[in-house]
Amino acid sequence: MDAKLVVIIAGIILVVAILASLAILRGSSGRFTYDTQGGTRPRATEGEGNTQGVAVKGRFTGLAFAAAGVFAAITAKLWSMQMVSSDHYEELSRQNQTRTVTTPAPRGRILDRNGVPLVTNRASLTVAAYRDLADDAVLVRHLANVLGMPYIAVKRNIQDYNQSAQSLHTVATDVRRSTVAYIQEHASDFSGVQVVERTQRQYPYGTLAGHVLGYTGTITSEQLEARIEALEEGTADARAGQIQYESGDIVGQSGVEIQYESLLQGIRGEQTVQVDVYGNVTGSTSSVPPEPGSDIKLTLDLKIQQACEDGLAHAMSAGQSQGYAEAKKGACVCMDVTNGEILGMASAPVFDPSVFIGGVSNDAWAALSSEESGYPMINRAIAGQYMSASTIKPLSALAALKYGVYTEGQTTVCTGWWTGMGEANGKYCWDHAGHGTMNLQTGITMSCDPVFYDIGKAFFYDEKNPEGLQEVYRGWGLGSTTGVDLPSEAAGRVPDAEWKSEFFSDWEDADRSWNGGDMCNIAIGQGDILVTPLQMACVYAGIANGGPEYVPHVFLSAVGRDGTGDAASYETRKRLEGTFGKKSDIDLVKRGLYGVIYEESASQAAHFTNLDVTVEGKSGTGQKSGEDDYSWFVAYAPAEDPKYVVAALVEQGGFGSTSAIHAVRDVLGAIYDQPDTAGDTAGDGAR
Amino acid sequence: MSAKSRNASSDALERVNKRIGQARGSFKNVVNIPVLVASVALIAYGALVIWTASLSISAASFSRHLLGVGLGAILALFCWSRDWRGLSGLSTALLVLDLAIIFSPYIPGLSYNAKGMTGWIEIPGIHLTFQPVELAKIVTVFLVGGLGAQYNGHIDSVRDYVKLCGMLAVPFCAVVAAGDLGSGLVVFCSGALIIMMSGPKKEWVLSTIAVLIGLVALLLAADSVVDSIVGHDTLIKQYQMNRLLVFLDPSSDTTGAAYNLQQSMIAVGSGGFFGKGIGAATQAAEGFLPEAHTDFVFALLSEEFGFAGAMVLLALYALLIFSTIRIAYRSDSQFLRLVAVGIVGIWLFQILENIGMCIGLMPITGIPLPFISFGSSSMLMQMANVGIVQSIWRCRAKAS
């Protein structure tokens, strides 16, 4: 519409211009006749000769300048192309003549500490296509028939992945050789469809250790951009040995797969050939064979890993059979206290990493990220944040001893109802019947709350160290990440006055000020404190070691790309030295933890007296309003010369002794080949 | 007054000297040495480039190129021997001849349509093919030169100016209508240069340019509308539009219209200073550069001989053109002067357009590079032009 209007207006202007010029021309001399009649005779008069000469000279000067301008413009442009930018054009010219054919390199395998493969590769014939092919209904239908897949599934596979539009989208994996042969014979019918041989991840143990291992997937455009940027930032030397990522590459997306991507990823082989304009190969210039990625050895021990998973499942089923129907989620981690090696790490619910092979469908992805499924992708051992419950009591005791707010000889009389902050602020002990006269050691053993209420109160009113309790918690690594070599670790939370004031910033000042009740709550691990199962495993490893905690890790070593020697191995690093007053404080706590296992209750002791090694540990029961209690159990063994620490948590699994204890006991049973012979009794309610 | 008379007397002295020189039969006086050197060097340079092209491009036949040079030499000698002033009064005949030449490919007995090419004729009996539009260029120069010479250096009436322009528009429109916009532009530019040198008033020229710009803009704007009304591609052909768009934004299309330009620029740029050497021009040899021996021969030359080789070529062209301008200036005959200017226009525009399109300065059109491009028609007529220029030099001072 607009264009037509422009044309009409321009036409009118043109007509007016023509009429105007005709009017002007009417008045001219009319001396022009067409031919000059044999005419060497000039009709125009010579005019004023010299003026004429000057005019002619001026015109020729103008002509010469115009010609010079043409040459100058061409010269300038040639200079910029051939002198200034010639390298750029040379590169383009070289690219014209060469084509690079790449051969994918297999990804490194992931092994347990004894070399048992947890993730391997297998070759798979894959049919792939670009996204725009989905518009060709005839081709898609034909392809669906050949592959024996529903039309809609093929179409969705071509269209639907969380992949960039430019990358090849996998249509079908593990295609039969006969099908591939058919597609290749009828290549003209399937233009745009490609058959590629890809290696694919294989998981011999199914879902085992899925949270630690992680899964792989096609590189996302964001990841690709980040990789390219990182590569460009580096110096030329740094780039030399780097992996050049391309759209369509399979990369780690979680767990060890993404953490050690640079080791696991192979370097694709490249063959550069010279071609002419028709693509005919006229020569071969260079050939680099593919380099497979490095095999990685993890600290995981298949037997212990299996025990962690089975034990956690046992713990959850025990909880369910005792009336805790929601006991479906949890975590269990087993670590070597002497060096931080994680021997087993389980999280429930589990997911199957093999669903990601060849691209996860939208439906499967939606299911994996839904609330009903319980968010199985979360590794609850490192990313689940829970109230520590009574498992924190040993640290409260150490804090009290360090700052002298509650001494070794001090006692508290537990009547089941504690009124240390006045009757109005009275608090129950979990055992409403009361424990009688308690000291620090028996307070830990019996998990007597009033002893720790007294500690909380004492810290609250202590003028010198009002936050000494939190300092000791932090001193053992709570409230900060452990530094484990897995992605998405959570830091937990050690609440204090400053945190409360900020966190509840929209509350009235009076309501968000730190009070004695808050202090008493965190002293028994309730309220706003949050820890991860791995953090608690580290705390108990530190107690077992008499102070030192090591950085927890899953990486043991990497086998070199050429298959010989270790390309890299993990060096044990000390994470921190736990905060405590004097050596005897730790001994007191350990005696208390010994008591938990063997003295607190007969039914609890029954699970451990059938084990040859001495175990020390602590149960915990986190109270969350509106939900069943969260079941904790953390223990280490052997008590005399600690080697293993096991921490378990079952969400809504009831008391510590109801469910989590079974996970810990089963893992220790697997380590020492002494399975638990005591049944899943309700116990006697020990927490 | 005294300055004027001094000028006049020195002018007269010069003429006398020339006549004496001519009487002596000096070679210098009948043949302009710079033009001879430049044209012979250019032809030799072209032969070298076509020989290297013939190594990898089967269509580039070196012997056929030499045949064209040989025929051209005969034609040039003939042109040099003639006195062309006799044509100045034959405007009507020239116009008829010009149109006949332009439309000759449409005459049933003459047209030659092999391999989908248009604009060729085959001379009956001897199987010689020829592009008549090459001949039409020089005929148009004579036509417009003859008309322009009537005014002896200053056009006083705007009506005469408009008629002159109208006479140029006839062959231009004919060439464009015959389907060769590129050659049409050559005809137009050389003719326009002649008219400008015929002495019109500046304002007329400027307003003519303004009207032309307006017309082109109108054509571009109206094209899509007219196409949509008529229902098919009428005014500007789609490929012409694409070439123009690609020229404005070379990255707009990498497979179609922009491919030639990109490959040509890669060839030129990758030549560097000294070039890749004879036979080592990969862009041309492996077929990436299209039409490497005809329209894009400059890209081949630049790839092989680099910036240095291109500068040598430009220097030879500059010598040829500036010498011809000098010859035109020194010619006593207004008609021959304008013919020489027209030939300068042909050369200058073809050089600008052909080299310019190879390096992205100008939109792509199919115009040969004078003396270098493979193609006998072009070679024949360019050598004829040299012969005419030499004849103008020979006859510079003869009284009519």
Shape of chain B: globular
Q: Give average pLDDT of chain B, whole number.
A: 84
Characterize the main sheet of chain B.
Answer: 2 strands, antiparallel
The H-level CATH homologous superfamily of the largest domain in chain A, spelled out, is DD-peptidase/beta-lactamase superfamily
Principal-axes shape call of chain A? elongated
- The radius of gyration of chain A is 39 Å
Strand content of chain B: under 5%
What's the alpha carbon Rg of chain B, rounded to whole Å? 22 Å
User: Termini distance of chain B?
Assistant: 29 Å
Please, what is the average pLDDT of chain A? 84
Number of strands of chain B: 2
Number of domains of chain A: 2
For the structure shown, list the relevant keywords.
heterodimer, A: 687 residues, alpha+beta, Penicillin-binding protein 2a (Domain 2), Beta-lactamase, 2 domains, 7-stranded mixed beta sheet, 5-stranded antiparallel beta sheet, 23 strands, 39% helix, elongated, B: 400 residues, mainly alpha, two-stranded antiparallel sheet, 15 helices, 2 strands, 69% helix, 2% strand
SSE topology:
The complex is a heterodimer of chains A (687) and B (400).
Chain A: H1 2-26, H2 49-84, H3 86-97, E1 98-103, E2 110-111, E3 117-129, H4 137-147, H5 151-160, E4 169-172, H6 177-185, E5 193-202, H7 210-213, E6 216-218, H8 221-233, H9 236-240, E7 250-252, H10 255-259, H11 261-264, E8 269-275, E9 281-288, E10 296-298, H12 302-321, E11 329-336, E12 342-348, H13 362-368, H14 380-383, H15 393-403, E13 412-414, E14 417-418, E15 427-428, E16 436-438, H16 440-446, H17 449-461, H18 468-475, H19 497-503, H20 516-523, H21 533-545, E17 548-550, E18 555-559, E19 566-569, E20 574-577, H22 583-598, H23 602-606, E21 616-622, E22 630-637, E23 644-651, H24 660-672
Parallel strand pairs in A: 2-10
Antiparallel strand pairs in A: 1-8, 2-3, 3-4, 3-5, 6-7, 8-9, 10-18, 11-12, 11-23, 13-16, 14-15, 17-20, 18-19, 21-22, 22-23
Helix pairs in contact in A: 4-5, 12-24, 15-17, 15-18, 15-22, 16-22, 17-20
Chain B: H1 2-24, H2 27-30, H3 33-56, H4 62-81, H5 91-103, E1 121-123, E2 128-130, H6 132-149, H7 158-177, H8 181-197, H9 202-230, H10 238-248, H11 257-270, H12 282-285, H13 297-330, H14 334-358, H15 376-394
Antiparallel strand pairs in B: 1-2
